[in-house]
Amino acid sequence: MEITLKDVFFSYNAGTPLENEVLRGLNMTLESNKITAVVGRTGSGKSTFVQHLNGLLYPTRGSIKVGDAWIMNNSKKKTVLFDKVGIVFQMPEHQLFEDTVIKDVSFGPKQLGWRNELIRSKALEALRLVGLDESFADRSPFELSGGEKRRAAIAGVLVMEPSVLILDEPTAGLDPAGKQSLMELLLSWREEQQRTLVIVTHDMDLLAEYAEDVIVFESGKVNVRTDPLTLFTKYRDRIEALGLKLPMALTLVEHLNARLRSPMVINSVKREAILAQVADHFLVASGKGGS
Predict the structure, then answer these.
(1) Rounded to an integer, what distance in angstroms lies between the CA atom of residue 195 and that of residue 113?
(2) Which domain holds residue 15?
């Protein structure tokens, strides 16, 4: 499902002496079935931006088209699209509140008036999608491990079968194995369901590994929009200005290039591709590479 923003402005406390303009004239389209990363320093407008995409917030001026629906400030009836655009907020496990996992996962569908039989089957399917089998359904969410809590919270969004899934710092607080496992689950869901992912993150390794499109926010505007390879090469200065670090694999290449007579020119920002390129470079340099 495509999302288009046209001249979108947003202010907190609009029309008061405390008015704070956060979004300033956004014009963009988020393409269907694509992974888009949104980055920028704290306070740049990233989280405010994504909360506009399903009607949690409404623009002070401008319009947003989500599929066939419109989100506009002058609409007589407010459009809420929680079932079409799902948002997983940072540390979603802190939002668990029911006494069983399945009740928590079922909360959204119940608010939409789904039939009980359908709710249970869809809730169990959502749990399966995040790697939690039926044995977790009647357990208290507060007895789960940190990683299991996060998966249960994400299941509560996936159960709505959104066309667009927004992830705000999805791997924050997870160890490397937990990060990889969670992202593999989400990517599997996305590929199986042909969905759109929007990832808000400060993690440049995550961006490099998974993003296809990158939007860099600064002071409520789009500073640059590009692909990950171009971002870390042509727009390297923008990354540094925002206080963000290069992915670890690219940092390795930089350290190596500082000592090589013939520096390597990377053609991918994915970790495995970079490491393979480094290995090939040294094999060739040692005379053990191909002809």
Answers:
(1) 24
(2) 3-243
